[in-house]
Structures are given as structure tokens and as C-alpha cells.
Amino acid sequence: MTATTATQQSDRAPGRLISDIAVLTQRNLLRNIRLPQVLLFSTVQPVMFLLLFTYVFGGAIGQAIPPAADGKYVNWLIPGLMVQFAVFGSGQTAIGLTEDLSKGVIDRFRSLPMARSAVLAGRTISDVFRNGFVLTLMLLVGFLIGFRWQTNLLGLIAGMAVALLFSFAFSWVMACVGLLVKNPEAVQAAVFLPVFPLVFASSVFVPTATMPGWLQAFADNQPITVTVNALRGLILGEDALEAGQTTIGQIFLAVVWASITLAIFVPLAVRLYRRTVN
Amino acid sequence: MSSTTPIVSAADVVKTFGDIVALDGVSLEFDQGIVYALLGPNGAGKTTIIRVLTTLLRPDSGTASVAGVDVLADPKTARTRLGLAGQFAAVDDYLTGRENVEMVGRLYGMTSANARRRAGEVLEKIDLSEAADRNVRTYSGGMRRRLDLAASMVGRPQVLFLDEPTTGVDPRSRLDIWALIKELIDAGTTILLTTQYLDEADQIADRIGVIDRGKLVADGTANELKAKLGGDVIDLHLQADDCAAGLRVVAEIAGEDPSFDADLNMLTIPARDGVNTLMETARRLDENQIVPLDIALRKPTLDEVFMAYTGHTAEEVAKAPKNGGRGRRGRRTE
Known about the structure:
The structure holds two protein chains of two kinds.
Chain A: H1 2-11, H2 16-34, H3 36-61, H4 73-102, H5 105-110, H6 118-144, H7 153-181, H8 184-192, H9 195-200, H10 213-221, H11 223-236, H12 247-276
Helix pairs in contact in A: 2-3, 2-6, 3-4, 3-6, 4-6, 4-7, 4-8, 4-11, 6-7, 7-8, 7-11, 7-12, 11-12
Chain B: E1 8-17, E2 20-30, E3 35-39, H1 46-53, E4 61-66, E5 69-70, H2 75-81, E6 82-85, H3 97-107, H4 112-125, H5 141-153, E7 159-163, H6 171-186, E8 190-195, H7 198-204, E9 207-212, E10 215-220, H8 222-227, E11 233-237, H9 243-254, E12 259-261, E13 266-270, H10 275-287, E14 294-298, H11 302-310, H12 314-318
Parallel strand pairs in B: 3-8, 3-9, 6-7, 7-8
Antiparallel strand pairs in B: 1-2, 1-4, 4-5, 9-10, 11-13, 11-14, 12-13
């Protein structure tokens, strides 16, 4: 028994938190690989939005979009959808957590001598990878139906990075939702409640200029619009933004929003995690 | 570790959930190397005390230690010395059996090479080597339970906590799990398990704690618990016509009303003097020209023990519909 304890201790490196997070991230990602149908179904929704909005509304809305989109609504739409599904995809964090809670997996983790925060971090990090994959598939379909970046590839990659940062921050919000709701069935509905109005009262689908003043004031400053603007600046160029806005400025605001979200919701999620499972 | 220190001990543990008192001052302790069974119906507090001892739940008051470590003051160290297999097999369906066990090994802090080697050993021990590389989704209920046990063993814990390890498994898997528990004990592990089944406690436990409504109402070996009832009992099986006369006769011997099962025409009476009481009963029956269908001296069952300590049978409560099923475990008070 003494020998056993010794082995266990020699195994314990200072990077224990990192290795615990890595183990759990890998576990969560393996599920996506083993159940590829689930992942493919998750891309059905973004692709459907992409096709419906491009072909059904695109003709009508196309008149109202800035010339930077090169006259194609799909160019305007893609950065918006990237942010929309970065947020929708973060709902998976809540769903995954409640599933683990209900199956007793979280109890198992909590009885192990592992870093506690690794459960939440492993979940949110694996969801970033997952969402990156979904967004990439959506982009590929976008390319097939005529989307082209108006700046350069680097702009697109940077745009993707901003979208995923936003997705990561929102995953922590969703972690709180999951820990509060707890029930895997109920959480499916709960995650979309706060997200839907935010997505539509934004510049995801249309420029905010035609909205009533009070709504426009909200829409222009809320995190989704700011992040979408950052992506449009990076992917379509600064001309896609409204007068007075700069790409750098919008990126800065997007990063600030993500940082504020993280600063509030990471500690909150950790506290809820401690409380929920006790 | 000195053998005089109990490997698990809890003193005056109280835990309430709102109005519900889940643990009402539970104290228990036992020594290394045994199987200790907590026997009680649903809602008795079995799971709650396990959750306290495995650091998952902080009690309102009281103290608890596992393998010499105070679980409230130093839960981190306690976790290195204990293993837990909860009420539902906490295994991942979409990973293979081996990946499941390896992951837990890694989370115990082993290197991946060590975790892999240890997973191989454990899977061998629980006889899952052949199925180890299949997705757990394809496993039977009994296999999942065994895999969950394997995961709880991977860190070589000094104390294993098994919460109803055989609830909901088929009879064959139940025997497999019993055999595995015996092997673990032989290898020096201490086990605390909970069960609603009296025969299970009787079969595999070295010591039994009877828990009811958040209180430990009895504690001892199966034989001690039975002995506390006043020794052996006599089962007397009579013709239907003889029952009334038979009851009168045995009442004189027992000095109290014997328990009488009208469906079976079976009387059960305490045999204070063992065989002497048996012979006395037979003689008196003979004098009254009552010929029993069957008469037997036996030890009391744990069911009777439970009845004596709690005023109700374990089955009575256990038969109440099990709450939830695997999906729900919101506010459990058990």
C-alpha cells in the first residue's frame, strides 16, 4: 500500500490541472467522433438558416445591405450566422453538463482526487472545438452557394477566432443555465430562451438602421451585433461597417464583451457547480 | 496504519434537505478488511451517508473520516484513498470499457502509461477483458455495473463505497458481483456497501448496520443481530383445523401471542431454550392430539431482525415504487 501511494504521488505533476482538463476535453470530443451523426445533425440547423435566408429573404434584403458585400446577401449573412451559431452551439455546454449530472458522472468526478474546475473547463473547451467544426462545415456550404471573402483568408481566420472566443465566453453562460436547470430535457428549451431575442435584435440578418430608434440603440450595442460587426470588418472590409465604426474598434469591443462575460460567468459557474452538486 | 484505528468512522452526522431529515445523527465505525453492509429501505439515508463519506456532501453537523483522513477537513487527501461506485453506473456509453477505466485512472493522477497498465489489470480482474475494446453502449446492465466497479477500483482505494451494487441487475450478474466483492476483500480492500436486500447483507457482509429513517438502529454481525432477538425461533406448520387449538397451546409456552400467518397456517414462536423449547412444544402438541405438518427450529431471518428493530419489514418499504429511474436525481433524500 505504501508503494501504491508513492506511485500515485510521483505521478502527480504540477501541471495536474492542465492534464485533468485535457483528459476531460478528450473524453467530450471522443463522443462527437463516436457519434458523428449527432455532430452532422448540429450542422443541419446552420445550413438550413443559411439556405433559407439566402434564397428566401436574400433577394428582398439584398437591396438594403452595404456595397461591401459585393451585392451578394450570402456574403453579408455568413459573418452573422457564424456568430449566431457560435452562440447556439454554446447551448451544447448546458446540455452536456446536465447529461453528466443526471447520469451520476459528475458524482464520480467529484469523488476523484482531480482538479474540480477541470469538469467545467473540459466541457467548455471541447465545445469550442465542436463549434469550430460546425462553423467550418457551414462555411463550406457557404462557399458552394457563392460566399467569397472580400478581404483575405487571414481575415476569415481571424473572424473565426473572434467567433470562437465569443462561443467560449457564452459556453460559461450556458454552463450556468445547465447547472440551474439540471434537467436534460428542460435545458434544451431553456438555452434558446435568452439567445433568440438577442440574435434577432442584432445585425445578424439585417443592418440595424431600419429598426425603431429604441431597438436600434439596444441592437447596436449588444454583444452579438458588436461581434458580428467585428467579423464583417475582418471578412468583408471596413466598408461593411456603419459610418464611424472601425474594424479594430469593433474587434476591441467584441473582446471586451467576451472578457466581461467570462469575468462574470466563470466564477458564477464554478460557484453554481459547487452548490448544485452538494 | 494501526489496526486499532477504524478505517471508516462517522459520528453524529446530521443532514437535512429543507424539512426532510435525511440523516438524524448517524454514528458508525468499522475496521479494515471487512465488508460492511448498510441495510435499509429506500429513503432510509443510505445514499446520503455514502455521499458524506465520499466527500460529495457536507453534513450539517457531525464528523467523518476515511482511512485516517477527516473527509470534511481534508477532502482532497480523502479522495486519494477512496473509490465510489454510485447507484447508477456512471460510465460513458460512447467510450470503450478500457477508455472509461483509463480515464478514471488518469483523473487519479496516473500517467497515461500507468493508467493503461492499471486499466488492463482491473478489466482482467472483473472478467471484462474480451469486451474491453467495445463501446459500452453494447454492454448489458450487469456488464455496465461491473465496469463501474472496475472504474472505482482503478486508483487502488483503501476503502470502496458501493451504493446498491446489485440493484437492478439480473441474478447471475448479482452472483458475479458478490464473487468480485469477496475477491477484493481477500486482496485487502475494505468495502462499505448499501443494500435493500436482507439476503445480500446476510451473504456477503461481515458486519451489518441497519439504517432506518436517518438513524442507525442496529449494528453487528448477522449472527449478533439475530441473537439480539433472543435466539432461535420455531416454525410450526399446522392443519387448518388445528390452528385455533395450536395457538392456545403455544401461547402457554411462549407466554405471548405467537406470530401467525393465516395463509400458510404457520405459527412462529421464539425458542428461548432452543432445543428444549422445541421438545416442550412437541410434547404439548402431542398431549393435545395435534399432529403438525412440519415443525422446525431455526435462526431468525434478517427480515425478522429488521422488523424487530424498525417496526416494519424492509420489503414493505422497498416495494414502494422506486423514485425516478435513471434520469432523475434532482433532490434525493435517500
